[in-house]
Write a structure and sequence with these properties.
Tetracycline Repressor, domain 2; Arc Repressor Mutant, subunit A
Length: 226
């Protein structure tokens, strides 16, 4: 059985290549669907997302989605090859949006600590609004050691790379301990984001409190003593 270190090493190994490829891949995304077709796809994805977020997992039937969309089950397969295709499209969208938001936050500068707090706030806000981000991160983390060239996994690797760079910047600024392995820590941060999201509903946390909790996980495990 492969241990956690093997999985982490493989994710780190693909990270740098993923970061250089991601934006080019976004620009080449297919645009051959009509506006009406895209609207229908979005509606199907929205209904499936609501079901997944409510249940906290991907265990749903395509018939449930078809009823929610008021369309035949057969019609769903015109837009999505199967349930796996639908789930992947939902997760790709969620991670794409997060990548764009993180890039914007990083571009606005600030110290590494300030940027990391802003990333936590952005993630918390999206989860609070019903985004499937926590499920998407969990899904891609699990798949990462088997499908390193998959676009969904590459999105995760890109996010991991950005966080790792922020942690390295934090070392230079004196807010992050020098001995921290930033690549492995960045993977752990993404895992914490995914699994901690359950608390936002179970504990009734506000968006701000959840963001603060996420940042405390990062700071508590990596920060220099004050």
């Amino acid at each position: 059985m492969r241990d956690a270190n093997d999985v982490s090493v493989e994710v780190v190994g693909g990270m740098r290549r993923a970061r250089s490829d991601m934006h080019e891949r976004y620009r080449k995304r297919a645009g051959d669907k009509t506006r009406k077709s895209m609207q229908t796809r979005k509606r199907i994805m929205s209904v499936a997302t609501q079901i997944m977020v409510a249940r906290g997992n991907t265990s749903f039937q395509m018939s449930e989605v078809s009823r929610g969309c008021n369309m035949s089950k057969g019609a769903l397969y015109y837009y999505f090859a199967d349930k796996e295709d639908l789930i992947q499209a939902i997760f790709d969208d969620a991670l794409d949006d997060l990548v764009v938001a993180i890039d914007k936050i990083v571009a606005e500068s600030g110290t590494a600590k300030e940027v990391l707090m802003s990333v936590c706030s952005e993630y918390a806000s999206r989860v609070r609004e019903g985004s499937p981000l926590s499920l998407a991160l969990m899904y891609e983390l699990i798949r990462s050691h088997e499908f390193s060239d998959d676009e969904g996994v590459m999105r995760l690797q890109y996010i991991v790379g950005v966080i790792a760079d922020l942690l390295e910047r934090g070392k230079a600024e004196g807010s992050i301990r020098k001995e921290i392995d930033t690549d492995l820590t960045a993977i752990a941060v993404c895992g914490a984001f995914a699994f901690a999201a359950a608390g936002i509903n179970e504990e009734g946390l506000s968006t701000g409190a959840f963001a603060s909790q996420l940042f405390q996980i990062i700071e508590g495990g990596t920060g220099e003593p004050q």
